[in-house]
Amino acid sequence: MWLGNRFLFSSLLLTLLVSSSGTVAEGIGPSDYDRSRWHPIHHKPVIDNVIDDQCLSCHQEILERNVLDRSPAGVKSSEVLAWYQTLTTYEGEQDTFHRRHLVTPLAKELMDLRCNTCHQGNDLREEAPVPPDHSNRDMTLRKSVNPDVCLMCHGANPYKLMGLPKPWAESRDMFQGNCLLCHAHIRTTRHQVNFLKADAIEEAAKIDPDVCYGCHGGRQWYRIGYPYPRHAWKGMSNVVPDWAKGRPTESEPRFQIKTQQAAK
Ligand code: HEC
Ligand code: HEC
Ligand code: HEC
Ligand code: HEC
Ligand code: HEC
What we know:
This protein is mostly helical. The chain has two domains: 2-18 and 25-66 and 80-145, no CATH class; 151-263, no CATH class. The chain is 35% helix and 0% strand. The chain is built from 14 helices and no strands. It has helices at residues 2-18, 33-37, 52-59, 61-64, 97-102, 105-110, 115-118, 140-143, 147-154, 168-171, 180-183, 198-207, 210-215, 257-263. The longest helix is centred in the N-terminal third of the chain and has 17 residues, at 2-18. The chain is globular. The site of one heme C has 22 residues, from helix 11 and helix 13.
């Protein structure tokens, strides 16, 4: 009897957990602070199967917050632009990190990032209250995101392995500033992942070739480049260059399009 009940309970729980229709947070309002804070949605396996609306039902501030007009010392935000904010691809006023990846015009046009593309859920046992101060539960780890995710779009331009004589900024004129001069035929099976809009990227790059550079060196926060998977393409040679030996030939499983469809 008891076992039966428990079974019923756990299968109910499972249904609740895996359904992606917005029910995960149901019954727990954001007002119930502790239960929300420790809600299983923050951890694996639940976090892998949620849609953004479920996170946003508690974390609306992520998309609503804005940067300050001016710093407490009075410096206007419009006067403290970083170098990359002076490029033509940077639109509008300064905005928050989350908004730049989820809702700005460029983000919406080219990308389809989800909360769980970056937030993959931490292990509760690693939430790390430091004894003797058990109140130290500021969830630092929960905020942490695997930097490899960022590296995919903010790494260095791989000009050496592409056979270019100099970094793109210096050699671009030789190629009319256009990556597609080569990439209309080389590595053409690209961007088939659930957080990018592959067709829109190709369209946008035909109008403004700098679109490609934007994610492949133009917003470089790292010294290194990302070792991309090397998908087979039409006309590819059988000879694998040395630098590419050992590279995967498919995108990471969690990014493959079929994974996303299964989660929908
Ligand atoms: C039921 C409400 C609820 C849902 C749903 C929810 N969260 Fe949370 N989350 C909270 C609360 C409450 C905290 C603790 C916030 C605090 O103490 O400032 C928190 C903390 C966090 C933190 C650490 C924040 C910090 O400032 O320390 C992150 C990151 C986070 N949540 C991300 C997510 C993501 C991603 C999702 C969706 C997968 C999600 N949350 C879904 C309520 C929720
Ligand atoms: C491009 C990757 C990325 C995406 C997409 C993303 N986040 Fe974050 N998020 C981060 C990073 C990085 C931090 C900052 C960690 C830190 O401050 O240490 C963060 C911090 C947070 C925090 C805590 C700090 C804060 O700013 O309040 C919350 C809550 C949060 N994210 C929720 C979300 C939700 C909800 C979504 C989906 C609507 C989302 N994030 C989408 C990378 C991302
Ligand atoms: C799928 C590609 C992609 C991923 C993954 C990604 N970014 Fe970005 N990032 C962009 C694009 C595109 C922009 C420019 C958006 C715009 O100008 O509206 C950008 C802008 C930024 C900016 C400038 C924001 C501003 O307003 O000045 C920072 C900082 C940043 N990203 C950091 C990160 C970090 C940290 C991560 C990992 C947690 C990350 N990005 C993951 C594509 C990506
Ligand atoms: C002169 C021709 C040429 C030009 C111009 C060119 N590329 Fe490449 N690119 C290549 C070649 C060749 C490879 C390696 C092909 C292979 O896998 O064997 C490559 C590979 C790449 C890779 C994969 C790197 C890796 O580690 O797997 C990326 C990303 C890339 N190019 C982006 C760009 C971008 C963005 C531009 C424009 C800013 C550009 N390329 C301009 C020829 C070119
Ligand atoms: C919004 C960011 C973004 C833009 C814009 C972008 N890329 Fe990429 N690119 C990526 C990411 C992320 C990957 C890795 C995807 C994966 O894991 O399969 C990638 C992978 C590649 C690869 C490796 C292909 C392979 O074998 O899988 C090449 C080549 C490449 N991009 C070239 C380009 C060119 C050329 C353009 C312009 C037409 C461009 N990229 C525009 C983010 C971007």
